[in-house]
Write a structure and sequence with these properties.
This protein has three helices and no strands. It is mainly alpha-helical and 131 residues long.
């Protein structure tokens, strides 16, 4: 009776490369967590400052509604960026596990967040300029 051939032992170089890629994916996710937390905190801070000014000055503040929307948009951008980064991280870990190291072109999450912040800034600028 012949025994089935034993599986090849894992290649140490490949396994270490997988571990380095996993660690890089973790660092990237942590950077997105910091970025998203900053956006959410900044948006929350804008909203709290505007609310405090509203209570202190009464309805004399014209731009309170605009500032509140700006704060909410920062919170939304930060939350959506964190959600997208989490999904991207999970997919990166799956690709590492499968050993699928072929380059796949995809939309940059950083670029999407940059465009969203540009739009929020543009709306804030126009809102202050026109109202």
């Amino acid at each position: 009776m012949q025994h089935p051939p034993e599986p090849f032992p894992p290649n140490l170089t490949n396994e270490l490369a997988k571990e380095r890629n996993r660690a890089a994916a973790e660092r990237t996710l942590m950077a997105w967590i910091r970025t998203s937390l900053s956006l959410i905190s900044f948006g929350f801070g804008i909203d709290r400052v505007v609310e405090a000014l509203d209570q202190g000055l009464g309805p004399q503040v014209d731009h309170a509604h605009l500032a509140r929307n700006l704060g909410l948009s920062f919170i939304a951008i930060g939350t959506l960026a964190l959600l997208a980064a989490s999904f991207s991280h999970r997919e990166d870990l799956r690709r590492i596990q499968r050993g699928d190291f072929t380059y796949i072109s995809r939309l940059s999450l950083s670029f999407v967040v940059a465009i969203a912040l540009i739009l929020a800034g543009l709306f804030a600028f126009l809102g202050i300029l026109l109202f």
